[in-house]
């Protein structure tokens, strides 16, 4: 079975992607505290541990107002 890593898995898109692939893939869906994408060492550690075949990258700051205020 393919190993699929989903970032931002607690978000709108990530949660749905995890549900969609739950029957066909082994899923790693870490929370933001388990995988902070702004922390490179943290990202390497998760990749080394889980060794995903594929990644669906859904982690993002999706609040446009916040992004415009603090680019
Ligand atoms: N929603 C849509 O219809 C849609 C359509 C097309 C494209 N997209 C794109 O898909 C992406 C996700 O959208 P969304 O609607 O799912 O947003 P969302 O509900 O706000 O989810 C974003 C996820 O990213 C996580 N996150 C934020 N900063 C992070 C970090 N530094 N490390 C790890 N995780 C982090 C959030 O965790 P916390 O909740 O803990 O902060 C949350 O789980 C965005 O780039 C968006 O533009 C969305």
Q: Keywords for this structure?
A:
about 70 residues; alpha/beta; three-stranded parallel sheet; 3 helices; 3 strands; about 40% helix; flat; binds NADP nicotinamide-adenine-dinucleotide phosphate
- SSE sequence, one letter per element: EHEHEH
Rg over alpha carbons? 13 Å
Low-confidence stretches: none
Largest sheet: 3 strands, parallel
N→C terminal distance? 40 Å
Strand order of the main beta sheet, please?
Answer: 2-1-3
**Could you estimate the helical fraction of the residues in percent?**
25-40%
Question: Can you count the helices?
Answer: 3
Question: Could you give the topology of this structure?
Answer:
Blueprint lengths: L2 E5 L4 H10 L4 E3 L11 H11 L3 E4 L6 H6 L2
Parallel strand pairs: 1-2, 1-3
Protein model, in words:
The protein is of the alpha/beta class. It has one domain (3-69). The chain has three helices and three strands, in the order E-H-E-H-E-H. Strands 2-1-3 form a three-stranded parallel β-sheet, with helices on one face. The longest helix is centred in the middle third of the chain and has 11 residues, at 40-50. The radius of gyration is 13 Å and the shape is flat. The N and C termini lie far apart (40 Å). NADP nicotinamide-adenine-dinucleotide phosphate binds at residues 7-8, 10-14, 32, 35-38, 58-62. NADP nicotinamide-adenine-dinucleotide phosphate (NAP) binds at residues 7-8, 10-14, 32, 35-38, 58-62.
